[in-house]
Amino acid sequence: FFFLPQEVVSEESEEESNGVNLMEFSDEILLHILSYVPCTDLVLNVRRTCRKLATLCLDKSLTHTVLLQKDYKVNKDKVKQLMRDIGKEIYQLNMAGCYWLPSSTIDHVTRCKNLVKLNLSGCHVTSLRLSKMLSTLQHLRSLAIDVNPGFDASQLSSECKATLSRVSELKQTLYTPSYGVVPCCTSLEKLLLYFEILDRSREGFMLSGQLMVGESNVPHYQNLRIFYARLAPGYVNQEVVRLYLAVLSDRTPENLHAFLISAPGSFAETGATKNLLDSMARNVRLDALQLPKAWINGSGLLQHLKFNNPFYFSFSRCTLSGGHLIQRVINGGKDLKSLTSLNLSGCVHCLAPESLFRKAEDDIDSSILESLVVSCCNLRHLNLSAAHHHSSESIGNHLCQLLSRLKHLLSLALPVCSITDVAASVEKPPTTPNLVPQTFGRKVRIGIQTYPRNLGDEANQKMESSVFWALMGSLRFLETLEIIGSSFSSAMPRNEPAIRNSLPPCVRAQSVGDSEVAAISQLTYLQSLTLAQLPNILTGSGLVNIGLQCQHLRTLSLANLGMMGKVVYMSALMDMLKHCKCLRDLRLEQPYFCAGAQFFQALSHCSSLQRLCIVSRSGTLQSDAVMSFMANCLEVIMCHMFVGESLTVCKNLQQSIVRSFQAERPALNVVIFPLLHEDLTEVIRDVPMRHLDEITLFKSRVAEEPPNLWW
Predict the structure, then answer these.
(1) 213-217, 225-229, 307-311: least confident range
(2) Cβ–Cβ under 8 Å, residues 246 and 271
(3) Which residue in 697, 687, 398 sits closest to 559, CA to CA?
(4) Which of 34, 627, 636, 668 is deepest in the core (most CB within 10 A)?
(5) Contact 567, 590 (CB under 8 A)
């Protein structure tokens, strides 16, 4: 009647053969087991099986917090029944990303009179519905909502505004220029803002960053402790966020300890923002900091800011040199023991003493990295991607050797060129007689093994002596790993046409291939893996090792591996997928990828798969194979394919999938579209933000935000 971890099921069967059944376990053990079951199943199904489970399923430990955010099988009727049965027992409700539920579903939340935390990000909520719901939630202290076109703050009732006045935590995603409910929240301590406003309407008209009429109310920031703003590309988002910042520049909250603005591209500093930063330097001590690169580059800001016990820093895409990093941020290693998350993505000079006369490809200064490792010894999340971090030939000073001292790391992002052995980078890439040649020769038959199964034995001695192999061996508890080419760019940038040409990989990365991928298989607890632009992938044999050894793998993203003319690792990938029983998200980006019957047959072994995204310039797909895959993999609720097929083929397949499976899978989201079509950006804008942000768009996600920013 419900699913248990495999090891528990096997133990239960063994115990039953000896006369002991599940119901004889203690209540504490049963409650722990039941905590893995979705709340909708507990309340609507499991508790109806027997009296004991009927009591346990309503235990406060199971009903206090209800998480529906990735319960893709939940529908309006289930939510209605759930709220009717346990609404008064729910104190925290997370419905984030439930885009498939009709807006009327929100009406049932009014039964949860004791709600303290509510997350409705990604849900359809009108101003009137929001007003009606919040009017009944007098105990609410934490709220997350979307502000869509048509939102009208004047429709909020006085009872609703009274509830908002007590809210101390607000997460607001804006799809239209607006203050949303911020002016009503007079007790704000944490404010998270996500700006997703497009520069053009669907009709092609340019939008303005000016707020709607009647939205001149001023936000209340006097109690603010955390301010976070993440901007999608576009000038309108920049205009609107400046309106939010204007109030901060007049008077900086005394208790502010986290100030974070994530802005892509160029976001120029103005007089108001400069006044804000000067005020922060005088009046506050920060624990978390992230600023647009233009606000840091060339300024002495970091020298004047004061830090208390910092836990998060992001200097992504800044020209900050290693010398400034050590002197102005690390402060000689005295104050950074508390730092748990550091994002230096795209910070090309952060491991060099100065940046004035340095080329981005020059060797790093290992002493700077060593100071960083010693000072930040408790780091759990580190991002060094999107830069050329080349180690010198000095023995013991390789980047991988220094990073191996960070024993607490849970997530790590590195450029491909940083993991190569210095000696190997100047040698020719290794060749093996049985490997696929790197030419546009005869096509390889997919069904026949094209890589040597004993490659690991042949290269074992060389692999285990490499610095990257040693690094993977020292980070046994790593959960997230990203190895991304320093010049890699996805074929699907946001709000722009697809990129047709990609930059060549770094010369130092030319030797990185199958043996380095095989080294990753040492990470027994790995849950998320991203590999992009590894040029020396010849067969993909290391992928099979990962499939066999990394049994906790849930998310896999592969992009531009090996030669670009053909998919040389297809056989190994199919072998790998047969072992990935826990895989939920798969993203593949590779030119000329053939999504045929054998690929989807192998993918069908991934019984837990929920989301699939394929991005392939000149790629092909087999419609019958896709339909068969969707029929066999009942958990799949997202299928995105951007390939080289015609618009007619794509539309017909998309309609067939929706027509066949939408009724059984309410959360089903299908987008099949030609990658190079001029209307791609219009199609992308309709993709639910949850899928777009988490899988469809390629990006580095390590240390992207402070840990535990929201629940």
Answers:
(1) 213-217
(2) no
(3) 697
(4) 636
(5) yes
HSE-up of residue 286 (Cα within 13 Å, Cβ side):
23
φ, ψ at 312 (rounded to 5°): -145, 130
- At 91, which amino acid appears? Y
Q: Which of 85-99, 453-467, 598-612 has the lowest mean pLDDT?
A: 453-467
CA nearest to 640, candidates 583, 559, 701, 586: 586
> 144 pLDDT band (50/70/90 cuts)?
very high
Q: Which two tokens stand for residue 364?
A: 């790093």
Residue 631 to residue 210: CA distance in whole angstroms: 48
**Greatest C-alpha distance within the chain:** 77
- Residue-level pLDDT at 461: 58
pLDDT at residue 630 greater than cutoff 50? yes
Q: How far apart are CA 49 and CA 29, in angstroms?
A: 18
> ∠ CA(120), CA(587), CA(525), 5° rounding?
85
pTM score > 0.70 for this model? yes
Cβ-based neighbours of 357, under 8 Å, separated by 6 or more:
none
Question: Helical H runs in 465-596?
Answer: 467-474, 514-519, 541-549, 570-577
CA torsion 245→247→250→256, rounded to 10°?
Answer: -70
CA 37 – CA 363 distance, rounded (Å): 51
Residue with tokens 């399923």: 57
Q: How open is the CA angle 127-129-132, to the nearest 5 degrees?
A: 110
Using CA of residue 643, residue 646, residue 647, residue 648, what is the dihedral sign? negative
Residues 6+ apart with CB under 8 A from 543: 517, 569, 572, 573, 575, 576
For β-strands 341-343 and 381-383, DSSP reports them as: parallel
pLDDT tens for 571-581 read: 999 999 999 99
Encoding tokens for residue 283? 């009046």
Question: Are the C-beta atoms of residues 187 and 164 closer than 8 Å to each other?
Answer: no
CB 397 within 8 A of CB 426: no
Tokens standing for residue 441: 């020769």
Q: What's the number of CA atoms in the CB half-sphere (13 Å) around residue 638?
A: 25
Question: What are 135's two structure tokens?
Answer: 């009017």
Domains in the chain: boundaries: 24-124, 144-272, 603-710
**pLDDT single digits (tens) 449-477:** 455 555 445 456 556 789 999 999 999 89
Q: How far is CA 344 from the centre of its chain?
A: 17
* Residue 169 CB-half CA count within 13 A: 13
